[in-house]
């Protein structure tokens, strides 16, 4: 975030304000020196400039140290900004666990540490300013003393001395301005490196193919193995299955088994592994344009990202060109019609930041409607029914089956009732497929799926009894 805010501002200052300082002060200083040489005494001018050359040398010596301090300070501020965002997002959790005061103390301690390091930078910046002030004074004193010597030798007049003194005062202002340039460009230089690092970083996802398709007929995973770029362990292990057009695939398994990681391969959110293969319509997935595939997929993630606008705006975000009929069909398929009717402003109801004014189940249904309005070739629901009751879940699944009979669907869930009508179900455990088949076939195996099914059935019966 800092790269997009503070760094851009600092770089802008260096390019704009800094460039103006350089041009104006250097032009001014050179003009004054030329005037001093031709209207007073070149010898006095040379002697006066010597301390200023020393100033340039001292700045050169301090440059690397100040550069390190600027970068360290910038990184500390960036980390602090991220912590602030986390605390704002997690304020409800902190209050719920009674950790508000503890987090405040920790944040205060962290702020104090950042302030101390920032003060080190201020000391060095102040040192540069004081050195500039001292050497400007030294330049004036040496220049006037040497001018007195030249007058005594008959090489300079009193009038030239007065003129020389005026020029020295004007030159001092130019040099003082140049000391500001050092600070502006030092900060801009650090920001430039950070922005350049971001812009030149290699994105392996950009290495995509150029093929395009307008429909998805078959998806195949062939002994596919995946490991996160920064991970040490293999996350997906020899995943092998296929899914034909018009089928619904259920993916179940315990938390952390690799279900979401599996579907993220279809979304191309990570570089495709070289071990094994993923094919769409018989062609390697990496041969297709990512943008083309994104246009064919409707994805509802676990965490529902909503905009602080109206309900209608959030749903229509999936397809800006959708007409009223498509809008109503998506809302009905997401079993959201009655909820909208109860809202005072209907589709024009503002949902607040991150959907704060609507319930968890309503957030999920807004997200589902947003995906359905795209009429995607492939619909992926990633644990997107966890906040709705069993009746609503059943209605949504049935609606999706009806309106998407010739399209492909993938449902990732913990509740087996969501995949009871699926054509095929994968059971994932520790990144491996341990069971595969129709729901009925998996029940007959009496493995993980059967045990989970019986457990959930008992919970349902207990709730009905209560």
From TrEMBL:
Recorded topology in the membrane:
Multi-pass membrane protein
Q: What protein does this entry describe?
A: ABC transporter, ATP-binding/permease protein
Asked if the Swiss-Prot or TrEMBL record annotates the protein with the keyword Zinc, the reply is no
The subcellular location is:
Cell membrane
User: Which keywords does this Swiss-Prot/TrEMBL entry list?
Assistant: ATP-binding, Cell membrane, Membrane, Nucleotide-binding, Transmembrane, Transmembrane helix, Transport
Name the domain of life: Bacteria
- Domain spans labelled ABC transmembrane type-1: 1-187
Matches recorded under InterPro entries: AAA+_ATPase, ABC1_TM_dom, ABC1_TM_sf, ABC_transporter-like_ATP-bd, ABC_transporter-like_CS, P-loop_NTPase, Type_1_exporter
Species lineage, top-down?
Bacteria, Bacillati, Bacillota, Bacilli, Lactobacillales
Which residues does the UniProt record annotate as the domain ABC transporter? 219-455
Known Pfam families for this protein?
Answer: ABC_membrane, ABC_tran
Which terms in the Gene Ontology molecular function aspect does this entry carry?
A: ABC-type transporter activity; ATP binding; ATP hydrolysis activity
What does UniProt give as GO cellular component? Answer: plasma membrane
Residue ranges annotated as transmembrane are 14-38, 45-63, 131-152, 164-185
